[in-house]
Amino acid sequence: MSETCQNKTLKIAFYCFFPGGGIGQYTHELLKRLSEMEAVHVSLFCTPDFEWISRATYEVRPILYDISSQHPLLRKMRFISGQWISPSRMLKEVRKRRFDIVHFCNINHLSYPFWKRSLGRLKILKACTAHDIRRGKSILNRTWETRQLKQFYRDTCPIFVHSESQIGDLISFADISREGVVKVPLGPFSLGTATHIIAPAQSYSSPSKGLFFGNLRDEKNLDGLLRAMAKSKEDMRLTVAGKPGGSGHHSIAYYKRLAQKLALGNKVNWIIRHIPDKEAHSLFQATDWVALPYKNVFTSQSGVLNIATHYGKPILATPAPTFNEVFDQYPIGVLSRDMSDASITKALSKMVCKCRVEGAFDFSSYQRDHTWERNAELTLQAYRSQAMMELGFKS
Hints:
Elements: E1 10-15, H1 21-35, E2 40-45, E3 59-61, H2 72-97, E4 101-104, H3 112-121, E5 125-129, H4 142-154, E6 159-161, H5 164-174, E7 181-183, E8 208-213, H6 222-231, E9 236-242, H7 252-261, E10 268-272, H8 277-286, E11 289-292, H9 303-311, E12 315-317, H10 321-329, E13 333-335, H11 341-354, H12 364-369, H13 372-390
Parallel strand pairs: 1-2, 1-4, 2-3, 4-5, 5-6, 6-7, 8-9, 8-11, 9-10, 11-12, 12-13
Helix pairs in contact: 1-13, 2-3, 6-11
């Protein structure tokens, strides 16, 4: 199997278990760039309803188990079944088609011991992107799942993350060395063009318009933002756009009741459903600022942040680990001193005031440093470096 690594066409199988969301979009954008590079052939193994199939410029193999359902109980049953079925389907194809690398975008850690041996028999490189180092909620048994997730990380190299804080968290959590952990940037999440073009927001509008966008999971702290808004003396409105967080998270009714209790009924616009790209494009164009008041348990990078920076919209954020790192380097918004409602209220007032000042925020350096081209270059470089060590490729 010894061969010049720079000249060999690397055959890479990407595994994406979820049909949509930030991980799906990340995978789609990265594959688009990798597929444009020489000596690389990428294939995506995904579910039949993968959201970006119609826009794929790379090979798509929609053979994974469909986990979608309108019924919560059936959706959970399909999700659990897919933990075993989908890895098995993917590994059969990888073995048959002789891939060099399998890159896990999602990790079925619950069932890892049941397909680990089949994966180990394949003389291939095993890579993953750890968007979330730890899992916020367990599926069946927290102790079992944590043990298997740690083992998966120990068996995998390279592992791609998006921040220094994630590197430290991964090393501490899985007890692995720094070598083989690769930091790659998130590129901009462009949403295309709107059906009805809305002029970009001016430097200041009255009332000031904020946007809370994405799946409404508890760790995103929408309730904290609503309480902070109620205490603020600034004239502002908030649009909340996205799908419910699902099982284990607060319901939409909870947030709406809270808004009414805080006398914010006429200050919050609710768009509770999947937001198509064209509509999201309009929402981001029309807003003055974007709210990311996330709790400390949020340790991944935010796809919403990378949409906001693409549109040049300042970001109100709390000092979650990755946000601290970003705001230390780039003047792209206002960072709350801590997670308290009082601090978020002060940050809201500062945001409204700074939006009145031309040039108060600068997105140029962030946009320069965070590109999909750079991500793809670093990813391919890590593949080749590890392949030389593990697969006997010559440099």
